[in-house]
Amino acid sequence: MEKISKVVLAYSGGLDTSVILKWLQDTYGCEVITFTADIGQGEELEPAREKARMFGVKKIYIEDLREEFVRDFVFPMFRANTVYEGEYLLGTSIARPLIAKRLVEIARRENADAISHGATGKGNDQVRFELGAYALMPNVKIIAPWREWDLLSRDKLLAYADAHGIPVDFKKRKGGAPFSMDANLLHISYEGGILEDPAAEPPAKGMWRLTVPVEKAPGKPEDVELEFRAGDLVAINGRRMKAHELLAELNRLGGKHGVGRLDLVENRYVGMKSRGCYETPGGTILLRAHRAIESLTLDREVAHLKDELMPRYASIVYNGYWWSPERRALQVLIDHTQASVNGTVTVRLYKGNVIVVSRKSPDSLFDERISTFEDDQGAYNQADAGGFIKLNALRMRIAANKAAAPRKKTAATGRRARKAGKSEG
Fold it and tell me: How many domains does the chain contain in total?
């Protein structure tokens, strides 16, 4: 066993990371420093502090990272209109690079020998945490207990917890938690347990904590005005707020109207398929509104280029390459396109739907004089379209003529051959 004196642990205070804390102390005989990030999971974090103290942890970091999370990670991602495999808004993926960043910063500050996390050897998060850590601290030592220990079942974890006096939530002990959850300001994810059968309908109770069922959503629609500056949301209904407050308000509004539920079978980076259920009410509204303001303000080819690059950007984020040179390079391009993405969009929330009802911008490229179906008074010469169409059809006309020519030649050759046959007869 490599000599490790001090480890910084990404610590939630739940069963897994509480077992990991004690396991690190027992296995490596090391000092453990805990780091707990508040990224809007909506849980009381003081119990994590108390649990850490129970096991002699002297240095406990609990940090409010909500504003940094939304401002520096969520908003830049939404400038790209990022969606993974057509549906997933990357709520878990985008939180990991920030946690990795703080882990290595604390490790440097504390002169730690290693960092540790509670991600399993089957999931994406181990990749995301570790790629981020290596990008920011190339020679960092990483301890991933799920890849080292033999506590590979719930019963073994519970037995270890009981043997070492680790408090266990009643539902965990009785098997009453039918799935695992991960929450932050962008979303809540539900995975595992009864959701591992893709044919099983998600349970009506215990899930969907941010959103009401559409059948229970208000029967009256609600209009919401969103204001954008340089591609980022800056105000809701004329009220300016901090980035994390804006997203929280969108979550409240969307959740009330049943917006943002998703049941998805996705392809994990490690190779397997995984079924997850997600709630992203604020992100769903934000994506729809951002695309609406871009439709007014982006040049056609710039908009299409962004759409072509978006799946690549989404895979980069999903697979854990936030701190990679390719993501940074793409971000420069994306951010450059957002300089003119300014204005307001009004969306209507109703029974799970987000409907764009209006958009306006001082940087709009929509020219009513040219677009009108009425008399444009010479702003657009419709006769020009004939030459435009004919030139764009040129390559297809050439190809069609070429394809038709051999058929004529073959017919003529056939007639000559038949005549020659009759002469010989």
Answer: 2
pTM: 0.92
Backbone angles phi, psi at 236, to 5 degrees: -125, 125
Are 186 and 94 a contacting pair, CB within 8 Å?
A: yes
> Which helix (H) or strand (E) segment is 305 a member of?
helix 300-319
Of these residues, 16, 66, 232, 359, which one is catalytic?
Answer: 16
Q: Distance between CA atoms of 281 and 254, rounded to whole angstroms? A: 5
The residue annotated as part of the active site, out of 38, 71, 72, 180, is 180
Catalytic residue check, 96: yes
Choose the final residue of a domain: 349, 366, 383.
366
**Together in a domain, 204 and 351:** yes
Domain encompassing residue 273: 198-298+341-366
pLDDT digits 0-9 by tens, 188-247: 999 988 999 999 999 988 899 999 999 999 999 999 999 999 999 999 999 999 999 999
DSSP character string of 154-201 = HHHHHHHHHHTT----HHHHTT---SEEEE-SS-EEEESGGGGSTTSP
92/203 same-domain check: no
**Per-residue model confidence (pLDDT) at position 418:** 67
Q: Which backbone phi and psi does 265 adopt, to 5 degrees?
A: -100, 115
**120: buried, middle or exposed (CB in 10 Å: 19+, 13-18, 0-12)?**
middle
Distance separating alpha carbons of residues 4 and 19, to the nearest angstrom: 18
- Please give the single-letter amino acid code of residue 236: I
Confirm whether 414 is domain-assigned: no
Q: Is 239 among the residues known to form the active site?
A: no
Name the token pair of 11.
């610590």
Active-site pick, 49, 96, 102, 128: 96
Q: Tokens standing for 367?
A: 């020219």
Out of 18, 125, 275, 359, which one is annotated catalytic? 125
